[in-house]
Amino acid sequence: MATIRDVARLAGVSVATVSRVINKTDSVNPETAAQVLKAIEQLQYEPNAVARGLAGKKMGIIALILPDILNPFFPALARGVEDVAQKKGLTVILGNSDDLGLKESTYIKDLKKKYVDGFIFASNTIREEDVESLRKEGIPIVLLDRGLNTASCPVIRSNNRAGAKLAVQHLIERGCQKIAHIYGPQEFITARDRLLGYEEVVGELEGYSPSLMVSGKFDIESGRQGVEHLLKRHPQVDGIFAGNDLMAIGALKALRERGILVPEQVKVCGFDGISLTEITEPELTTVAQPIYEMGGLAARILLNEIEGGVRENTIIELDVTLIPRKSTQ
Ligand code: RIB
């Protein structure tokens, strides 16, 4: 027997929209309503009271699955989502995926049972089939930041490649000639695009060598270790672009431990724009992402679809801003 989810899938709308057409609770765009009614007729769907009460009813809950809220970037993102959702009277359930695909699939399975109205994932490990299955069940999903380059749901992130170029060009303008890069985990599209932006600019410099790049884990310790490795290979490094602010903070720590003066001897630039960069010694130059705005935009796009709007399966890259401070003066 056809369920409300079958109707939503066939009509290409959310379950909540089907419920609104059946219960005539809120106004629905006439074309959308016609699509839903056609699907109901085609499937001979019979809404039963209990199923209608549960499955179709908007629960007023959205799920936000982030990699790790211990990294200050993600709470700022979550705040942007929650402030928009809360204005619409929705509750946000937060989960940490630790960038583990299995954890993400478990969240999807468990939260679907709680009839959440939609998902926002900041994930590089969510699988295309998970996105597809949610879409087919009429459950809206939006990918944020590390999201896949997918064609089946909206993706919102910063223009990471352009931001990396901004960072490196700034270091060059500040007189750096031997510029290193501590790059984030390359399974993340954000880290990959920043490395590409770095290479695009330094590749033109005399004396550039791939050994000026060292891997990091987007955390403080890997930034500290990255400087140790870099200075063993290239003691004459005079500029460091770190793929995120936590690694840049680790780099400042390592340079200070070695008695190397920042910015006099080595200039350092990070990426993200987390508030910690305002209190480091020296204050850290960074490329600020519109973190709060990204979260808010993801929430608005998701809520639009939950309320019956049309899904735009586009990749939206927001501009970033260079914030020069003492670490590159
Ligand atoms: O600091 C965490 C990093 O992971 C950020 O740069 C963000 O873009 C995410 O990809």
Description:
- The chain has 329 residues and is of the alpha/beta class.
- Helix content is 45%, strand content 16%.
- The protein has helices at 4-11, 15-23, 30-43, 49-56, 73-87, 101-113, 128-136, 160-173, 189-202, 220-233, 245-257, 291-306, and strands at 61-66, 91-96, 118-121, 141-144, 155-158, 179-183, 213-215, 239-242, 267-272, 285-288, 315-318, 321-323.
- The strands form 2 sheets. Strands 2-1-3-4-5-11 form a 6-stranded parallel β-sheet, sandwiched between helices. The chain has a 6-stranded mixed β-sheet with strand order 7-6-8-9-10-12, sandwiched between helices.
- The mean pLDDT is 91.
- The structure holds alpha-D-ribofuranose.
- Alpha-D-ribofuranose (RIB) is lined by residues 71, 73, 145-146, 188, 190, 218, 244, 246, 271-272.
- The site of alpha-D-ribofuranose has 11 residues, from strand 9.
Topology (SSEs and partners):
Layout: H1 4-11, H2 15-23, H3 30-43, H4 49-56, E1 61-66, H5 73-87, E2 91-96, H6 101-113, E3 118-121, H7 128-136, E4 141-144, E5 155-158, H8 160-173, E6 179-183, H9 189-202, E7 213-215, H10 220-233, E8 239-242, H11 245-257, E9 267-272, E10 285-288, H12 291-306, E11 315-318, E12 321-323
Parallel strand pairs: 1-2, 1-3, 3-4, 4-5, 5-11, 6-7, 6-8, 8-9, 9-10
Antiparallel strand pairs: 10-12
Helix pairs in contact: 1-2, 1-3, 5-12, 8-9, 10-11
